[in-house]
Amino acid sequence: MTEQIWALLPASGVGSRMQANCPKQYLKIQNEYILDITIQKMLSVSGLSGVMVVISADDAYWPSTQSYAHPSVYTTTGGAERFHSVLNGLYALKEITSGQDWVMVHDAARPCVRVSDINKLISVASNNDGALLGVPAKDTIKQVDANITLGVEKTLDRSKIWQAFTPQMFRIEVLVSALEYAISSGFMVTDDASAMELSGHRPVMVEGASDNIKITQPQDLPLAEWLLTQQKNTTDVS
């Protein structure tokens, strides 16, 4: 690719479901911040131009990270919701690079992503309308009603169901337009691919490893530590 590729990590959330005394991205695994581990995974991608980290305005932890003084790591301030933070990060990227360059938006709380999967994503996204990592559904998927009874309405066709992960990779300017449209239209998009879909784009799914978990609840922390240890003991790290 002749265009630059950047990573964008929204990291301004508080992670209330972790029931911790600090934001989850600043919890530690083997004495390293989760955020530092995730940033290092992204910086391990060959040819990456840099990482934009979106932090909260009152973040007191960021200066104590290993990434704080890294010359390829930049920061900006987040917004009310994740998609606001991503958009803020994209605006900041547009000040230092071209809108025609590419950005991989990745959850700060996904430190177990494999660099080999990121490389697959880059290859597919650059030849399509963007792409995102994910895995095909393995279990039977039920659609339930929205009330408290959770009655099953129907069984969905599992062959068409994928679980969406990150990174999700798109051209910077195209994703900016998609997020601006989603926000102005009142859509509460839960990932960047959703915004792209609303704007008529068709991003491509790229199958990645199922160990690319998002740390959300307390029980996820020891699992992530175990997964990272297993990855270190294999050759599938780069």
Quick take:
By secondary structure, the protein is α/β, with parallel strands linked by helices. The protein is built from 6 helices and 11 strands. A hairpin with a 2-residue loop joins β2 and β3 (32-33).
Structure explained in plain terms:
Keywords: Isoprene biosynthesis, Nucleotidyltransferase, Transferase. It catalyses: 2-C-methyl-D-erythritol 4-phosphate + CTP + H(+) = 4-CDP-2-C-methyl-D-erythritol + diphosphate. Its EC number is 2.7.7.60. The record marks 17, 24 as: Transition state stabilizer. GO terms for molecular function: nucleotidyltransferase activity. This protein has a seven-stranded mixed sheet with strand order 5-4-1-6-10-7-11, sandwiched between helices. 28% of the residues lie in helices and 22% in strands. It has a single domain (5-133, 166-232), classed as Spore Coat Polysaccharide Biosynthesis Protein SpsA, Chain A (Alpha-Beta Complex). It is built from six helices and eleven strands. The protein has helices at residues 34-43, 82-94, 115-125, 172-184, 192-198, 220-232; strands spanning 5-10, 28-29, 32-33, 50-55, 73-77, 102-105, 131-136, 142-144, 152-155, 162-171, 204-207. A hairpin with a 2-residue loop joins β2 and β3 (32-33). The protein is α/β, with parallel strands linked by helices and 238 residues long. The mean pLDDT is 94.
Structural features:
238 residues, alpha/beta, Spore Coat Polysaccharide Biosynthesis Protein SpsA, Chain A, two-stranded antiparallel ribbon, 6 helices, 11 strands, 28% helix, 22% strand, nucleotidyltransferase, IspD, 2-C-methyl-D-erythritol 4-phosphate cytidylyltransferase, EC 2.7.7.60, nucleotidyltransferase activity
